[in-house]
Amino acid sequence: MQHLIPFSAQQCLKLVSLRDGETKLAQTVHTCSAKSSLADTLASAKSKHVRFAIIGIGEDIGPRANLGRGGATDAFESAMAQFLNLQSNRFLSGKECLVLGQIETSDLQLPEGTDAEALRKNVERLDERVISLVSQVMAAGLEPIVIGGGHNNAYGLLMSAKLTHKKKVAAVNLDPHSDFRPREGRHSGNGFSYAAASGALGYYHVLGLHELKNSEETLDQLTTFGGHWHTLQSIWVRRELSLESAIKEIITKLNDSQMPVALELDLDAIINMPSSASTAAGIPLMDALYYVSSVARNTPCSYIHLAEAAPGCHVAGIGAGYRETGQSISELIYAYIQGRLQSQQIG
User: Is pLDDT at 318 greater than 90 in this prediction?
Assistant: First the structure.
């Protein structure tokens, strides 16, 4: 499979500790065989009523091209080590999920000290791979759950949704940064501005935007586009409105747009999460879970993207980073899946 590293059943089982009388998600999820074509794998999954395809993008060229820290390469592995160890039971069987694998990025990774221009050229190459793979997943009728890499990959995902649905996409992004920076070459800070310029992004709302982590130029560009936001300070510091009321407003606007919805979350929005731009002034994980669950349950989501987690950036070392990012992403995956399944029941 071109530019896909399949995640096999054997890899799933290597990650789990099995106990008598228990069934883990690793034993029930569908996996990908290197012997099958991508088209056959997706068709087979759809025939078995699989709804979600879990995809990893292990790269940090986007954040580094944005002059930030590296480390966003291992989120998929850390997440699968935790998620697949969860129980298969009445709340989630696991049979709804295909663990597809990771987009090949090793040939695009460049050594420390590489200049930004070279990194940005490779981000463009990665965009092509993301669009190629994710478009096929969406066309097969599966919802991508995309883990890892920089937020630069929002561009490829938005382009994939536009190609699949043949219309612009409405995006909501829980993020202290709007990622609507100037189009100076592709990096993790301008995925949404490039998507807007390409015609893929039709509506954009940033939840938790930090009032002092976005330049005036960026805010001007976002305003000119017609973007919306609720700031971190207005909800969590000044308490001018509740998170619940903000999310209700966002859901109404997303549904009024009559566009497919892109659900985006930058892990650096969460307090002290190991990431390329971790922050002490972040939001609680439980609020992030509420955001994901609410949007997934009440809007026509096309995918979820969990970006920027960097286990190696944990202050206590990579082992602690694997545990924290893995557990957090696992909870976010479950919040999304449960929300989407409840949405189907409501509909």
Answer: no
Q: What is the dihedral of CA 89, 302, 306, 26, to 10 degrees?
A: 30
Identify the residue whose tokens are 């092509």: 128
Q: Where are the domains of the chain?
A: 4-346
In sequence order, which ranges of the chain are alpha helices (DSSP H)?
9-14, 38-47, 61-65, 75-83, 116-139, 154-165, 191-198, 216-225, 232, 243-257, 285-298, 318-346
Residue whose tokens read 């290197």: 34
Tell me, what amino acid is at 330?
A: S
- Measured in residues, the chain has a length of 347
Amino acid at the residue 221: Q
Secondary structure string (H, E, C) spanning 214-283: CCHHHHHHHHHHCCEEEEHHHHHHCCCCCHHHHHHHHHHHHHHHCCCEEEEEEHHHECCCCECCCCCCCE
Place of tokens 């545990």: 323
Q: Give me the half-sphere count of Cα atoms (radius 13 Å) on the Cβ side of residue 311.
A: 24
Burial of 253 (0-12, 13-18, 19+ CB in 10 A): middle
Of 220, 222, 216, whose CA–CA distance to 201 is shortest?
A: 222
Cα–Cα distance for residue pair 77/56, rounded to 1 Å: 8
- Tens digits of residue pLDDT in 197-244: 999 999 999 999 999 999 999 999 999 999 999 999 999 999 999 999
pLDDT, one tens digit per residue, over 187-197 is 999 999 999 99
The rounded distance, in Å, linking the Cα atoms of 64 and 54 is: 25
Give, in order, the Cα–Cα distances in Å from 235 to each of 165, 175, 232.
33, 13, 6
Among residues 111, 110, 131, which one has the least CA distance to residue 2? Answer: 131
Query: Which uninterrupted H or E stretch holds 300?
Result: none
- Per the listing, tokens 């026509």 go with 300
- DSSP assignment letter at 176: S
Q: What is the fold of 4-346?
A: Arginase; Chain A (3.40.800)
| Residue 164 near residue 128, CB atoms below 8 Å | no
Residue given tokens 């697949």 in the structure block? 84
CA distances from 20 to 17, 23, 24, 61, 259 (A): 10, 8, 11, 43, 47
